Amino acid sequence: MQTFGWPEILFILRSAGWTLALTVIAFFIGSIIGGAFALMRLSRIRWLRRFAGGYILVIQSIPVLMVLFMSYYGLSALGVELPPFLAASASLSIYVSAYLAEIWRGSIESVPRQQWEASMSLAHSPAQTYRHVILPQAVRISLPPTVGFLVQLVKNTSIVQVVGFVDLMRAGMLVNNATYQAFQIFTVVAAIYFAICFPLSRLSRHLEKVMNASRSH
Amino acid sequence: MPAVLIEDIHKRFGSLEVLKGVSLSVDTGQVVAIIGRSGSGKSTLLRCINGLETFHAGKIEVAGHVMTQDPTKLRELRKDVGIVFQSYNLFPHLTVGQNIMLSPRITKNVPQAQALALAKDVLAQVGLSEKFDSYPDNLSGGQQQRVAIARSLAMQPKVMLFDEVTSALDPELTGEVLIVMEKLAKGGMTMLLVTHEMNFARTVADTTVFMHQGLIWESGPSKELFANPQTPELANFVKAGAH
Ligand SMILES: Nc1ncnc2c1ncn2[C@@H]1O[C@H](COP(=O)(O)OP(=O)(O)OP(=O)(O)O)[C@@H](O)[C@H]1O
Ligand SMILES: [Mg+2]
């Protein structure tokens, strides 16, 4: 029987890299799509609003796991074979986009209506109003919940193991199957999750403080 | 041609008719105070003049622009028509200087150096030169309102609208804002101001307009209007003192 040593730890660390990579990709792509859907939700054009609302509602109402199954097994039934990493990135991005869209829509809406009026009264266009007045304030408001969601995302990426992708969690299980030193292994795995998520939580709090300080220095 | 021409404006919110045919003409350099009870339509009228509210019938011309819903034309109109609100509405994420320079920069492409000079100039006009780098949150209400006026002035408007700009202020802070407005009036700015400061209306405004139930009930030269109200409604309003 194998013991839990450096090769195993390296394997786990490499898999942690995949978890990170997946998180970054899903967050990046999800942000772009989510930002677009947030703006569509707030559009003056009714069908755009409805379309975005429908998308968000559907994605939020089904488990991410189903999105993952559908993009992996569903497409492969149609003859399209997605590699696990692609299927995982795609479905996590979709998941992220729906949640960020809602967080950001809420942040944009919580900027007081009077800010819109003041900006438009100064002859700004709607785009200029978004760019110079609304979004800078909305970003501040959205930062803590956005980073909070990112922490959830790091942990939620562990579902991608169901399509055969070896992430941090899956690596721990594989090593455990070979060495049966569950306590040590999962302590290491937990420590890595903690090492990723803890700084993020701190970052969120730090940003909040910096933002507040910049408003009253 | 008058600086502001309002012809038979009708405005409804749902089934509630808030303006029932309002006409008003303001000459260049004239100061007009609008007074009246809460709900009489004063703010709505003012907001129609810079297109923040649309209206159902009638016509408005201001600073040579015909009121329109066309976004590009409306922006041209708004470059010439400043508005100051009761709640200041400064941009909290920008410093005082940035608040003032933003609009000239992005709507008129005023070069940075020129925008800076302009900002310093209007800030001096409202007596707040030393606050250039402050954030709005660190200013008193009276100071914020003066910055809001300066921000409007930086657009070099032809007409200024004021909607109860001292109503949110503690009594001891209203004076500093009223002084700035009086200076503007003396300097020849065309002004329409909704106010509850009867003294200010009487002494600074050339004309006072009394609105009642969505109509201009009575109007005339300020001093005469306050001294000899022609309608019982205005007499009561004046007697009740402001509200
Ligand atoms: N956006 C709106 N939707 C519905 N009703 C409105 C809206 N804005 C104003 N009203 C109504 O229109 C009427 C006139 O409002 P307006 O704000 O013009 O009055 P005002 O004379 O400025 O009053 P105040 O002295 O309280 O500011 C009021 O009955 C008000 O409730
Ligand atoms: Mg009002």
From TrEMBL, chain A:
Pfam family, one: BPD_transp_1
Taxonomic superkingdom: Bacteria
Domain ABC transmembrane type-1: 16-204
Entry-linked InterPro entries: AA_ABC_transptr_permease_3TM, ArtM/GltK/GlnP/TcyL/YhdX-like, MetI-like, MetI-like_sf
Keyword terms of this UniProt record: Cell membrane, Membrane, Transmembrane, Transmembrane helix, Transport
Subcellular localization, as worded in the UniProt entry: Cell inner membrane; Cell membrane
Transmembrane annotation, as ranges: 20-40, 52-73, 178-201
Topology with respect to the bilayer: Multi-pass membrane protein
The family this protein is said to belong to: Belongs to the binding-protein-dependent transport system permease family. HisMQ subfamily.
NCBIfam families linked: HEQRo_perm_3TM (TIGR01726)
PANTHER family named in the record: BLR6398 PROTEIN, MEMBRANE COMPONENT OF AMINO ACID ABC TRANSPORTER
Protein name: Polar amino acid transport system permease protein
Naturally occurring in which organism (per UniProt): Bosea robiniae
TrEMBL record, chain B:
Annotated GO MF terms: ATP binding
Membrane topology value: Peripheral membrane protein
Protein localization: Cell membrane
UniProt-listed InterPro entries: AAA+_ATPase, ABC_ATPase_HisP-typ, ABC_transporter-like_ATP-bd, ABC_transporter-like_CS, MetN_ABC_transporter-like, P-loop_NTPase
UniProt KW keywords: Amino-acid transport, ATP-binding, Cell membrane, Membrane, Nucleotide-binding, Transport
Keyword ATP-binding attached: yes
Xref: Pfam families: ABC_tran
Domain ABC transporter: 4-238
Record-linked PANTHER family: AMINO ACID IMPORT ATP-BINDING PROTEIN, GLUTAMATE_ASPARTATE IMPORT ATP-BINDING PROTEIN GLTL
Family: Belongs to the ABC transporter superfamily.
Record's protein name: Polar amino acid transport system ATP-binding protein
